[in-house]
Known about the structure:
This protein is α/β, with parallel strands linked by helices. Helix content is 34%, strand content 19%. It contains eight helices and eight strands. Helix 2 crosses helix 8. Keywords: Hydrolase.
Amino acid sequence: xxxxxxxxxxxxxxxxxxxxxxxxxxxxxxxxxxxxxxxxxxxxxxxxxxxxxxxxxxxxxxxxxxxxxxxxxxxxxxxxxxxxxxxxxxxxxxxxxxxxxxxxxxxxxxxxxxxxxxxxxxxxxxxxxxxxxxxxxxxxxxxxxxxxxxxxxxxxxxxxxxxxxxxxxxxxxxxxxxxxxxxxxxxxxxxxxxxxxxxxxxxxxxxxxxxxxxxxxxxxxxxxxxxxxxxxxxxxxxxxxxxxxxxxxxxxxxxxxxxxxxxxxxxxxxxxxxxxxx
Length: 278
């Protein structure tokens, strides 16, 4: 399947997700980066989750993930900004991270405070949610109040034990698919050990609190476990929520499956106090 066909297929990710009621949408350009606001009725207007979509850095968009981000925003009672960062292979690492940084800088100019902001993402977007927080700290800008990762893909070396042990039960994230997307994302093989592309190679001392939501059937389950271990080793705050027998980014079943709805509700309950909401 050619890349254009893959992108068309992955744009249909939103189809399992029920349209959330009481959410309006607004298209914006944030420092040159296209994005979509999801604004639930009655939500806190000064709290925001910056949502970076998954798709292996090569597929997906603000449209494929609009409904998923809106469900979480509605449950948390905040606004969500879904970022349409540049895709590989046309734009290789670190173009995606540069776009995320541009969006956060734009939010500061719009009056949104870092302590009222969370970074959220699924799969490759979860990688960016973490990497953006590190990148902000590296240039001495305020970091978000919290980070939420849904089925994160973090290890560009693809060394996780569950890549093999869960291969028979994970229907999507096979090794061959991960390797193909990695080749398109990275400029050269050595980038697999660049901490900006591989968050498992970072030091999580003084990192914001992290919530990890992942399915028990995922080949990438070990990425989540290793992330939690890294944070716990430096006495950081992390929640690892493994939902039995669930697939990669099962959260797309929001509004349709209780496992997805309950997982998003747990995230929202954890996230609200991080953003200063009762």
